[in-house]
Amino acid sequence: MGITKTNEISVPLENSDYDRTIELKAFDDTKDGVKGLADTGITKIPRMFHHDKDDEFENFSSDKITINVPSIDLRDIINNKDSNLIARRRVVVEEIREASETWGFFQLVNHGVPESVMEEMKGGVRRFYEQENEVKRELYSRDRSRPVVYNSNFDLFTSKAANWRDTFYCIMAPNPPKLECLPTICRETLVEYSKHVMELGSVLFELLSEALGLNPGHLEDMGCKEGLTVICHYYPACPEPELTLGATKHTDNDFLTVLLQDQIGGLQVLHQNKWVDVSYIPGSLVINIGDLLQLITNDKFKSVEHRVVANNVGPRISIASFFSTSLRPSSKLYGPLKELVSEDNPPKYRETTVHDYVSYSIGRGLDGTSHLLHLRI
């Protein structure tokens, strides 16, 4: 069988029998990820990254959609100095309610996380991926119990097609790893950035609680802010971006996501059956509703499909902070809040633990469907 070599990966030629399993294993065994492939200077991407030309690529080359994801200014809320703070807070709460119900996404400006910390976080992630391969390989694993996990495509062996990105992640709350377990090259910035995101989380869950007509501390008191997983993505420039994706369409399996992205672009959200670019705003953070928040609000707030298109420029850096206790053992059940259900609006979902829902979601991978469907009543 004829093969061609790409970064020590045996890639079957077009006129030969194709064994996807062999190609996946060869890729994974290098422990160099997508960046390792890109660094070889390839001009054709391996077949394992080819996505079917289905609805994933709908509007991929269409005219730019001019509507924008809502942008919300938290300056007065964070500074707490406005002479008419109560009225201003009502405005912000209403903006968050509308965005959470209609978009599931919004951008935050003047959110209180120092721009210097955000820039250093992006720089730290870039330094991690651009250090010597031998150093990174020590962290490469598919063992989710490790304090820090680096690999390419968490669902590599179950997805229909691989995505053009590498990832490392660590759980920073409620039980952060020992400092020496974090990557040396970015450990301090990981700790600093996570601290600021947790502080912002308190503000956001208060505002979201009020947007639901609840006491400001309701969502945090029930554990929505207890856990934080920081997920750091690296999307190398892709020589054939029209054939693949940076991330398949999906929803997030958490309560809330705080996303820090750079200027490269590529994030898109599905709004009114159209893919809309989430444009980069300097100094901003992107917020999106997760599945678990949609579940407990009984569909009032929407966890919306989003994706990342591949680019022929890069690398693109993004850091997604998931408010969730993830795979941590748990017995606490979450279901539609009793304050939000009634005879006219009965519960739409069965109860679940965070652990069980995240386990189910990881098992399914980024399969393009809402994982909430299996809990639907």
Automatic annotation (TrEMBL):
PROSITE patterns: FE2OG_OXY. Pfam families: 2OG-FeII_Oxy, DIOX_N. One of its GO terms (molecular function) is metal ion binding. Keywords: Iron, Metal-binding, Oxidoreductase. Residues 226-326 form the Fe2OG dioxygenase domain. Its cofactor is Fe cation. The keyword Metal-binding applies. Gene3D superfamilies: B-lactam Antibiotic, Isopenicillin N Synthase, Chain. Belongs to the iron/ascorbate-dependent oxidoreductase family. This is 1-aminocyclopropane-1-carboxylate oxidase-like protein 1-like.
